[in-house]
TrEMBL record:
It comes from Pseudomonas viciae. Pfam families: COX4_pro. It is found in: Cell membrane. The keyword Repressor does not apply. This is Cytochrome C oxidase subunit IV family protein. It is a multi-pass membrane protein. The chain crosses the membrane at residues 35-53, 65-84. InterPro entries: Cyt_c_oxidase_su4_prok. It comes from the Bacteria.
């Protein structure tokens, strides 16, 4: 797939995921909805890193570091949210 096609697909996926975040935000505030929103945020971070930053062509260490920060951050936020309830 050409680079421009990859960017268009990433942009469209980000638009869909952003719409999903808004729709989830309109739902009743529960722990499950919070986890779903965090999961969507991690997916968006992954798309940005792999698609727009083109880390899929970067060395494995850098790619893993950049992709793991979103998972770690979402995990910490999830722990804080669940412990506050």
């Amino acid at each position: 797939m050409s680079a421009s096609r990859v960017l268009i697909v990433c942009w469209m996926a980000l638009a869909v995921l952003s719409s999903a975040t808004v729709a989830l935000g309109q739902a009743a505030a529960t722990g499950l909805v919070s986890i779903a929103i965090l999961t969507v945020a991690v997916a968006k971070a992954w798309l940005i890193a792999d698609g727009f930053m083109e880390l899929r062509h970067a060395p494995r260490l850098w790619r893993r570091l950049v992709l793991s920060w979103a998972v770690v951050l979402a995990s910490v936020i999830g722990i804080v949210i669940t412990s506050a309830v």
